[in-house]
Every structure is written in C-alpha cells, then in structure tokens.
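Supplementary material to the annual report.
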Amino acid sequence: MTTWATMVRGLVSRVRHTNRAFSGRALRRRLIPLSVTTAIEVLENRVLLSSTTEVTLSGGDLVVSDVSIGGQADTLTLTFDAANSQFVVSDPNQNLYLSAEGIAGGAVVIDEHTVLVPFESVTGNIQVDMQGGDDNLTIDSTLAESVTFGTPDRSLIINSGSGNDTINLDASISFALDGNLNVDLQYDSGATDIDAIHVGPDANLLLSGSGAATLKASGNIALASGSSVVTVNGNLTIEANQQAVPTVGNSIGVDVNNAMIQSTGTGLVTVRGRGGDESGGLQYGVYVSQGGIIAGGTTGLLTVQGTGGDATGLFSNNFGVYVTDSNSSITSSGGDVLVIGTGGGTGDFSSNNGVVVFAASHIAAGGSGAVTVVGTGSDTPGVGGTNYGVVLDSDSSITSNGGDVQGRRIKIVGNSRICEAPR
Ligand SMILES: [Ca+2]
Ligand SMILES: [Ca+2]
Ligand SMILES: [Ca+2]
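Predicted assembly:
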C-alpha cells in the first residue's frame, strides 16, 4: 500500500529531477503560480513539468488523458481484469501519473507504466483522451473473457485528437442498460490524419436498452472474424473515410469479415464507407464477406452507403458496396433497407461497379420491410464499358418487399435474381 509519506517522498524526488530540465525564467514561470504547500499541489506540478499520462477518477468517471503539451505518442492498453475486479491501465512507453482523486478512489501505481483501478471505484463512464501524437489504444480483457460493463448509463468514450491514431477494441463487453459506446475519432481529428478502428477477433460489443454505438474514423474501420457490434433500441453508426478530403492508401472503408453489425430493436443502423486510392484496386467502400452480416432492426431504416476509392488500374474493382460469399447479407428484422453504392476509380478503367452481390450472398429485408438498392458505376467509360450500377452474380439475390433496384446498367447472371416477395 502506498502511503502519503512514500508518495510525497517520490514526488519531491520527481520535482527535483524535473527541475533539472528547466532553468531561469522558464522554470519560475512554471513554478511560481503553484505554491507547493500540499501534496495535491505537488501532484499538479508533476503534470506541468513532465510529459506523461494522467489517470484520474472524477465523479466516478475513470479518465485516462494524455496531458503532455502538444501530445505524445501513446501506446495505451486498458484491460478489463474481471478476475481481480480491476482495470489495468498501462503504457510501456509513457509515464503514468495518478491524480489525487485517483489515489482517493483506491487506484494504485504498480510502476511508472502501470496503474490499477478497482472496478468498484468506477461508477460513471470510462473516457480515454489520447490528444495529439500518433496514438495506439487497445481495449482488452484478460484471458479473452467477456466482461459486463457496470451500472446503468455507463459509457465507454474514446477521443484520439490529432495524429494518426489506431483504436483496437479487442475485449468482449456487455454494456449495462442505456450505456453508450462512443469512438468518434472525427470531431477532434486533424485534417490529414489517418485514423483507424479495429474490432478484434471474437470481440463482441453488445449494447442494451437505448445504448448507442458510434464508430467514426478518417481511415478504415474493420470488424475481424467472429466480432460484432450490436445495439437494441440505440442507434448504430459506423462511418469510415467520410471527411471532405479522402484518406489515401490501400484500404477498405468498412470491412465486415464474418462479423456482424446489427440492431435487434428499433435502433437506426447506418454504415458508410469509402475505399482508399491504391492503384492495385479492390478499394471497396463497404465490404461484407465470409458470412458477414449488416442487419437493420425491427422498424428503423438500415442505410448502407459505400463509395469505391479513387484508384487506378485495369479491372480495378473499386466497388461501392460489395457483398460476397455464402451467408453474407445486408438485411433487417422488419425495417426498410437502403443500399447506395458508387463505383470508384479514375481514368478509363473498368469493373468499378456501384453495388455487387456475389457468390450466394443476399440483400433482403425481414417482415414487410422495403428494399431499395441504388447503384452507380464509375462514370468513366471503362474498358469494354463494364462499370455497372448493380451486379448480381453466382446464385445471389436481392429480395424486395417493395422498394426498387435502380442503376444505369444492371447485370444479373449466374442463376442470380431480383425478386419481390409477397407482402
Ligand atoms: Ca497522445
Ligand atoms: Ca492522437
Ligand atoms: Ca487522429
């Protein structure tokens, strides 16, 4: 157990050490406004004088912040350690600093790179503020266990600031009633940032009640095999590479690989993605494969909008929305389904189709939901003129209970079909 005496000794040592890094007027400017009369004020000096990460408990909220001036490159991991009823905050490359509120809440510093926070002390949200720098954050759990995230309304909020940031959501988390998952990397992003969000293999992020899930990034958003993001009555919004100036490079906007995006209740589901510009092609806007599913809820509209990247190259296959492989689908539990795909590619190249449904995959709606598919091929002529609006190939289907399939050129081959089911 860390005592006040040992803590103050450590802080005095730290201030002495840090003072060597400053001199003259600059040092006085930093120290004079903060009379060092209590342990708490000494702690505040540490924040100002060192490049570090602060862990605090504020009104029951666990807040982890990059508090360095201008921001540092963080390699943070926040682990749900259910077996020991604690959060483990660690960063092998940065010094962690525990605020007075954190100490009062029972959090402890194990070493300068690791802080433990008891579950019972966190009665509010968890918020991670990465700020400036090229940051990497992993939300994890020990032994790949599934964890339940606390009391009603508790939310997980991640902000990444400027720099090229990657967020890895690797823990399976069951959110308490009405709690939100908010990983919006866009509102505080720099204009040229390449930010990414990865949902790890078998990581299931399950919200409940009116809890909403928001994932937004300037680069790609990928859901690995076996993973899911599921809401009940809360809205589910996933947006990749939607800013005014698209991100360059080799990327699929939203990649749903044997994974699931779903509202099981009345939540609106919105998935928008844009591909990168790598010349080899395959820069899909939204890619649903290997049994992947994007599913709308019982009444709310499902919108899937994909734009192929501005890649170049013959047959570059920069599809707007690409659904492929057996059991892959875009569907709903009764709500209407709207799929909008725009082929990418620049120059006189081909196979830049708007919407492609391939290899025994399907677009449909449950119940009496209407299905509207709007596909636009790249507006360049294409070699052989093969930039289709909508392509169905190899036992694929669009099943509509009303709605429409629209596209300047629609190709249906390989025992595929567009059919209207009886209402
Ligand atoms: Ca940072
Ligand atoms: Ca950052
Ligand atoms: Ca960023």
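The chain has four helices and 37 strands.
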